[in-house]
Amino acid sequence: MCGIVGYVGAQQANGRALDVVMGGLARLEYRGYDSAGVALVTDDGLATAKKAGKLVNLTEQLEAHPMPPATAGIGHTRWATHGAPNDVNAHPHVSADGRIAVIHNGIIENFATLRAELEAAGTRMTSETDTEVVAHLLGGAFEEVGDLTGAMRSVAKRLHGTFTLLAVHADAPDVVVGTRHDSPLVVGLGEGENFLGSDVAAFIAHTREAMELGQDQVVTITPDDVSVVDFDGAHVEPRRFTVDWDAAAAEKGGFASFMDKEIHDQPHAVADTLLGRTDTSGRLVLDEVRVDEAVLRQIDKIIVIACGTAAYAGQVAKYAIEHWCRIPVEVELAHEFRYRDPVVNSKTLVVAVSQSGETMDTLMAVRHAREQGATVLAIVNTHGSTIPRESDAVLYTHAGPEVAVASTKAFLAQITAAYLLGLYLAQLRGTKFPDEIAQTLDELRELPEKIQAVIDGAGRVREVARSMADASSVLFLGRHVGYPVAMEGALKLKELAYIHAEGFAAGELKHGPIALIEEGQPVFIIVPSPRGRDSLHSKVISNIQEIRARGARTLVIAEEGDTDVLPFADEAFFVPRTPTLLAPLVAVVPLQIFALELATAKGLDVDQPRNLAKSVTVE
Length: 619
Ligand code: M6R
What we know:
With 619 residues, this protein is α/β, with parallel strands linked by helices. It has 3 domains: 3-243, Glutamine Phosphoribosylpyrophosphate, subunit 1, domain 1; 258-445, Glucose-6-phosphate isomerase like protein, domain 1 (Rossmann fold), CATH 3.40.50; 458-619, Rossmann fold. Strand 2 (35-42) and strand 3 form a beta hairpin.
């Protein structure tokens, strides 16, 4: 969690450091918003400012007390781990001599030992953070080695846990030094200026040229140079890449919130994720999947690992991949997978799904799976992130930057990418005829228009949501692929509106949850297509009748033309006809809009819900 920005520019750009750093923090605030702070290297030494609360509090403080111009600076937006989110614990933290400022994302697990050692040597701590320990260690190391890069190397080796660290020194107005271990850091390459950031959003307004920083490396940026060494000082040549979206993609573009904008981005997210995946004969070619076809042919089990919304995308993938490929698919929360003793071997394909590519639970599960000999394929949205770098293959979703903490367009893009993977494996293993694969691809290509139709026709969903601002509990029911949709609908409502919400498999109702139904209890029901197999449709209609008979207020999501639902629906929201396995891409959209609208009606901040951060980079 935490957003990190570093900037260094030439003398003629003097004064720009604060603007660049604050601009970067604004784009990274989704990573944490408990407090924010900056440090600049000025002609008079280090200048720092920090403030508890959202970035706007720091902005107001800087307006009231402007900082001097500078060519180098670092900035931080915090999601608190050690120490309450107050002014004192906000980053940056400064060494005892006041010459070095440091910011940090992650957790220093051996900080108590290090702190005790420093205190025994007479250092006085002013905060409760693990980061302050690093500031003091850097101060001591700098005195010994005489340069910031060397000091960072020597301190980094002493730290256990996860960290991205950036530091500046009062005597080095044109240097920022950074390092990373199990936490993200990317380098932005400018002309006469260079940047560091937790992700490319930090500097996308200034450059699209970037560089990945590997594990256990130290980067030193000056206006005209970027140099990278490992912890032992050996020179490293990092991989360069060009970011394929621009600053406008990370702006609200006239919408009231990023979430609303990102819901409207969904038709594009799906269309872009499908783009360029077939050759001239219509065969799927997933170029990024660099795993030998022979390996993929002998896979006998797939395990999808992910967290939160990405895990629900994995659950949708299970239905499709098992149906198309006849390979057993398990879906497991990454943090649970990691700490049991999963049966994984060289015939297991582990699919790690992550928007950020940085979720620590998922990253740890990826490492564990690879240690057990599995092949790991990542479905990830963010280029330059850690999970794809540590996986055997990657299938990128092309959703563009997702800024709102609640995931929307990434979910649809993840499901789309998982469908592509399923169809690709079916093609490779011959479990589907080419014309069947081509037909499903055609049906997928119709989805962006259908999603657009749901968004355009969501007026009634919005009205109903606004009228339910006082609701204290909403339940969600679904079967088959509708079950993960129900759970995703509940998650959206919980995280945005702070309302008790739960998603159930509709078939499970009679095994317990029906006891929750009382007069007026709102329940969303995701009804499968009446054209689908196995009389699932009539089973769900029966479930609706059962809860309605017990007083539930039924909010039904059904396919256009499904008049069977009308007698039992207090509200019916229709979505375009879509093949059953692909239906989550349309069925979830009214639920996203419902949560957004209800939370907005409650006056809540839908982009930055309380207690959360976009990217969960601690376990
Ligand atoms: O970046 P990731 O996709 O790995 O993130 C996984 C979850 O933390 C994320 O989906 C989370 O559940 C969102 N807040 C849901 O809206």
